[in-house]
Structure formats: structure tokens, C-alpha cells
Design a protein that fits this description.
- The protein is mainly α.
- 68% of the residues lie in helices and 0% in strands.
- It has 6 helices and no strands.
- Helix 2 packs antiparallel against helix 3 and helix 4 (73-90) runs parallel beside helix 5.
- The chain is elongated and about 60 Å long.
- The model has no long low-confidence stretch (mean pLDDT 85).
């Protein structure tokens, strides 16, 4: 049980989680500002502005760098992990979202004549634009820097 307590006392991890939650809250505000609609679903969905994944891993890497040192092996691991996650968010998942959009369009055209199609539509907003990833990166670093006294 002490191990669980140690996890809860890990300030680097807690700050990274806070950065992720702040990014998700920002998505709600962006949705409210952009579409004039209060959409609670934006709190738990992937994609959108800013990238919560990027904020999460950027705060994690920044926190590790502040706590363990910028030349530490731990920072190197966290930084490489962050780069892979952000690349995936802007690259692979963005491409999968584009493919989903095209497949949904094909399905709409094929089954528009009253034919029945029983499957759900594919989720199109999977990834992020590079700008959304950069904003998430900057948000994560900023939150980590604000929390520096906690380390």
C-alpha cells in the first residue's frame, strides 16, 4: 500500500496530470468560444485544441528535467517519449482521422439511396494539427515551470 502512496506523492506525475486536465478544460473553452455550445464531451475526446497528450508529455519531460537535471538519463528518456507521442498525435493519428473522414463520406454516398448500414460512423477527430501540438507543448512546459517550486 505504501507504493500507492509514493505514486500520489510524485510531484512530477501530478503536475503532468494537471497539465493534461488543464488542456482538456481548454478544449471545452475553445468549443464554447468557437461554436457557442457547452459540450461536455470535449472534456474526454481526443483531438482538438490544444493537444492534451502533448501538454501531458511536455509537462512530464519538463518536470523530469527540472527535478533530475537536464543532462540526466531520466530526462533523455522522458524527452524522447514526448517527441514520439507528439509526432504520433500530429502524424499517424491525424492521417487516421483523414482516412476516417473519407470512409464516412464513401459510406454516406453508398447508403444514401435508402440502403441500410448498421455500423457506427468512424471517429474523424483523432489527431492534431502541428499547431495544436505546439500549443499543447507550450502549455505543458508553462504549467511545469509554474509548478517548479513543488519539485
Amino acid at each position: 500500500m505504501q507504493d500507492f502512496g509514493d505514486i500520489l506523492n510524485n510531484q512530477v506525475l501530478l503536475v503532468a496530470i494537471i497539465a493534461c486536465l488543464v488542456a482538456q478544460l481548454c478544449k471545452l473553452l475553445v468549443e464554447l468560444t468557437k461554436n457557442r455550445k457547452f459540450n461536455l464531451r470535449s472534456l474526454v475526446t481526443t483531438g482538438g485544441m490544444p493537444s492534451a497528450h502533448s501538454a501531458f508529455v511536455a509537462a512530464l519531460a519538463s518536470g523530469v528535467g527540472q527535478k533530475s537535471g537536464w543532462s540526466s538519463s531520466e530526462f533523455a528518456i522522458a524527452a524522447i517519449f514526448a517527441v514520439i507521442v507528439m509526432y504520433d498525435a500530429a502524424g499517424v493519428r491525424q492521417a487516421a482521422g483523414k482516412q476516417a473522414r473519407i470512409l464516412n463520406q464513401i459510406i454516406d454516398e453508398l447508403f444514401s439511396e435508402g440502403k441500410d448500414f448498421n455500423e457506427d460512423r468512424l471517429k474523424e477527430l483523432l489527431g492534431h494539427t502541428p499547431f495544436q501540438v505546439i500549443v499543447g507543448l507550450l502549455l505543458g512546459i508553462a504549467i511545469s515551470c509554474l509548478a517548479a517550486p513543488a519539485y
